[in-house]
Structure formats: structure tokens, C-alpha cells
Amino acid sequence: MIYRSLALIALPALWTLLFVAIPAALILKISFAEPQLAQPPYTPLFEAGEYGLVLKAHLANYTLIFSDPLYIRALGNSLLYAGIATLCCLALGLAIARAVSCAAPRWQPLLLTLIILPFWTSFLIRVYAWIALLKPEGLINAALMGLGLIDEPLVMINTGFGVVIGMTYTYLPFAILPIYASLIGQSPRLTEAAVDLGASPIAAFWLVTVPLARSGILAAGLMVFIPTVGEFVIPDLLGGSATIMLGQALWSEFFSNRDWTMASALAVILTILLLAPALILQRLELGSRPGMKK
Amino acid sequence: MPLLNIQGVSKYYGDETAVDNLDLEVEEGESLVLLGPSGCGKSTLLRMIAGLEMPDEGKILLDNQDITRLPPHKRPINMMFQSYALFPHLSVRDNIAFGLRREGMASAEIARRVDEAMAMLEIGNYGNRKPHQLSGGQQQRVALARALVKRPRLLLLDEPLGALDKRLRQQTQAELRKLNRQTGIAFVFVTHDNDEAMALADRIAVMQAGRLRQVDHPRRIYDRPVDRFVATLMADANLFESIVVEEAEDMVHARCGELELQFRADGIPRPADSYQLLGLRLEQIEVSRDPLPKGPNTASGTVIDIDYIGDMTTIEVRLSDNQIVKASQLNALHEPLIELDETVWLTWEADALVPLADA
Lengths: 294, 359
Fold this sequence. Notes:
The complex is a heterodimer. Chain A is mainly α. Chain A is 70% helix and 3% strand. Chain A contains 13 helices and 2 strands; from the N terminus they run αββαααααααααααα. Chain A is globular, with a radius of gyration of 24 Å. A 6-stranded mixed beta sheet of chain B has the order 6-7-8-3-9-10, sandwiched between helices. In chain B, strands 13-12-11-14-20 form a 5-stranded antiparallel beta sheet. Chain B is elongated, with a radius of gyration of 25 Å. The relative contact order of chain B is 0.12.
């Protein structure tokens, strides 16, 4: 019996070991090393000493990350932009998911297809399209100036605003789908009961629909927050030097400075940053699980 | 003045007519049951009273005020859903308090009213439980408390006993009657179960295909159905498709095969040779093993089937013209049981024959 269950988990365990645990351990190891001009470009963690192997762990990378304003800013920007984009995605996602779930059942598959349709084109092309929309001589500014609403073009590109717009746009489908799934599982009788008991439709939505969609909303938040914190392409294309995010800092350490140790330390910080909310939310979610029967 | 006045209400779903130009009044404090087969429009009518569906035509008045377009949350009408629709994320207490909180009532007053409702429905011990931790019967009580605590003008109950087992159902029927009298709130039930309708109703409104066939006291619905549909919906009945022979004084004579039928005239003119459907309840027939003189409202034939169900025995008798008449009688201890192929005589009173519209 025990062998059978061991056999069952062997493959996923092996996969996790090879492609998650070992690489993560390597990165953790490199993050405690010092850069050097050699192959590989970092010092070994253990050196042969007088009495066998000696641990040579350096904390310089971590102390630098938490003292250098560049990294602190990158950290702060990552949390700020990812947080705002997540909130925007949740608000829009809730509205769109609600609209789709209320549509006639025969329209719903089409609407869901439209939501994931943007994935048919390349992600890069879609972000470039946002440059064309947001730049000073872009479509949005041209339209606003044509209508006489503004005299000078708005600065939208190379700002945090541009980054948040780009991330919200890109990750919105990841918010809509889990929220939609949790809304569609709810019995319409529940909102009817709320309204029948004197709740306005808006109150019924906040008091019944949203709490019952909690697990979907939490999942949507994670699905957006986790990739946006480490996002690299969107802030690189739509942001400027002031909006540098952790992913960009990591990329430049690795590819421009060839400082593998610093890049690894940043990667470790990023992972911890993402692990914490995931674990907290998972704990919250396991706390209560409302039934969803028709 | 009736509490609720439904005037010429219609509801269409595409080409289908769910409710067809329907008029109905509900009196203050009464218990009215909408009875009909599934798909007859009774639930749609209930949802229109609650405001969850809008009528396409007609008006709904409550206390003489037009509420046809009033949204559900502004109506002093509450509904108990068939699925109970308890909020799964809220405790029993919070479920019951939900409606009062929406009224902006002071929390002390809410607590008092919730306690009172929980005591009335004997669910005082479950306040902190979540709905999924309750049995079906307990959930039903919470749903009832949640609607009653609002002290509505009208309580709507959609198949309230559908999910309960038989024993609990009978107990709950009695309790619903008691609550109706105790609170003075008018109850409107929807059900497809005629026994349930009989047990719950002050008046029964029989619905079919979006229209009301008959609205009357349960006893009259059973004894004096107006048409074939109502007669057979309530219980088994013999139906005689007869031809009128003559109308003499206050009696009408008719013929159905070899049967001579005589029933009381009701003011409706029935010319000779006109068609008349007559209903006769099984238990209104007296069964005798001693020969009876031939005459109106008597028959004799051979027993071809016996159905013994404890307190009653139902027999099928084939007359000499092959008509089959069903009769049932209470099983008395000293009466020897009727046997197959025995010849029996049947007789009934003229009043037991009910002229029915054959629609």
C-alpha cells in the first residue's frame, strides 16, 4: 500500500526536484557567493581549508539590496505597481465576470472566447500597441486634443501609469476567469433571496455575491499579483528609468553587469516576496469554505 | 378589500404563455394554495407577486396600491424559496437578521426580533451554526424564520415541503397552519401535491396552462369540481360522458350506455340530447351484494379487480355494456370481503353526480 502511494507521487516529486528544488537551491547558493572574473563568474560556497571544507557565505548582496536606493526603489515599485494592477484587475474582472455570468447562457461561451482572444496574438505586439496608444503623439492624445479636451499631450508613456495600464490589460483575463468560475457556481436564488429580503441589487451583490465568490477573487488576485511583481517586459517598454521594477533590476544584473550573485540574491528576494502572500491567502482560504450548491 | 389583487396578469417567455390573463384575489390572513402540475405557471405567478418577474400585461395591487413595477426589495412581501436559498457564508442568526439589517433597524431591536423568530420556530440552539451544518428540516425552519421575521404583509412559499420526508412533511403542514393563524400573515403556497394543498389551504386555486380553473374552499374543490381537469387532479373519479334525456322539475335525467343517471339541476339549461360530462367520486358509491331494483343511479355488474389498501378497498365493476365503474368503501371489520367475479349492485345519490365542463 505504502509503495503504491510512493510510486504515485514519484513522478511529480522527481519533476519538482529536478526543475524546481535543485535550481532554487543553486540560485540560493549563488546568492551567497561573490562575483569573480572566472568561469563560473562566482566564488564557490565551500572551499577546501585546513580542516576540510570551509563555508564561505557572503551577505554582501543582501545588505546592498537593502541599503542601495536603486534596489529599494525597484522593490517598492514592484509592490506598488503590481498591487495597483491587481486591484484594477480585480475591480474590472469582477465587473466583467459578473456581466458574463448574467448573460444568456448561449452567449457565454462566445464572451469567454472574446476574453481570451488577445492571447492569439503575441504578447510583445500587444504591448507595442499600447506604446502607439499612449505616446504623446499617440491615438489617445490625438483623440483628446482633437476633441479639444486638452491642449497639450498627456504624459502617459514612461510613467507608472503606463506600466499599470499595460499590466492591467495583460493580466485581466487571468482575473476574469477564476471570478467567473466562482460566480457561475452560485445559485441565482441566493441573490433573489437577498433582494426579496430588502437588499438593493447593489447591496445584494456586495453582501452575497462577492463573499460567495471569495475563493475565486483570491485566486484571481494571486494569478495577477504573482506574475506582475516579477514583470520585466511591460515596465521595460511602457515605463521609464523612474519606474524600474525588480524584474528589470534582476535582468540588468545578470545580462548587463554579469553579476550572477546579485541577480540570484534579487531572485531569492522576489521569490520570498511572492511566497508570503500566497501562503497567507492559502491559509485564509482554508479557514472557511462556503458551500456552493444550486 | 382584498389584501392582494391580481388583475389580468400575463407573462410570456418567447412564444410560450406562462401565465394567461389571470385574475386572483388574496384575502388578509388567509392561506391560499396555488395547485397545479409542473409547468402550469404557478411558480411564475408567485415570482411575479414577489417582484422577481415582471408581468407583461396586467396589474398587481397590494392594499389597493399598484406594485406591478415596484422592485422586490421595496415590497412588504417575502418568499420562502423551494431550495431555501440560505446564505451559506452566514450563520443562522445572521441569515435571519439579514432582512432586518436592510431596514436599518437598531441592533438591539434586531436581536430581540431574531430571538423571537428563532424561539417561534424552535431553532434557538442553532444560532451560531452555518446552514450546511443543519438538517433539511432545520434549514426549512431557518428559511421560514428569515422570511417571517420581516413581518411581511404576505408570505410566499414555493413548494415548502418538497424536500422533506413524509413524516416531517405532515408535522410541518400542521405547523404552517398554526403559524398562519398565529401571525395573521397571509400565506400563498405553491404546490403540485393535492394532499398537501388540502391540508394547508383555506382556499385552493387550481391552475392549468397559465389559467385558473377553479378557486374555492378545499372541500368544494373536491366535492364540486367544475371540470374534468379539477375533478381528476384531486382524486380518482368515475367520469360518465352522458346524453341528457330530459329535465324534470329540479332533476336532470341522462343516459350513459345502460346507465340511467339522475342529477340535480343547477339552473344551467340542458336541452334533450345535449352532451354532459358527469363526475362521481369513488367513495360516494354504495356497494351491495343484495340485488337492488333497477332504476336511476343504480348499476350492477361483475367485480373484475380488487385493490385493498388497509382502510379502504377499491373495486372495479364491469357492467353488462362493458362500462367500468370504480367504487371504494371503508373496510368494516364484520363485513365479509368482496371477491373477484362476484356480482354486486351499486347505488349513489343524485347529489353525488357532479356536472363537469369538458375542456
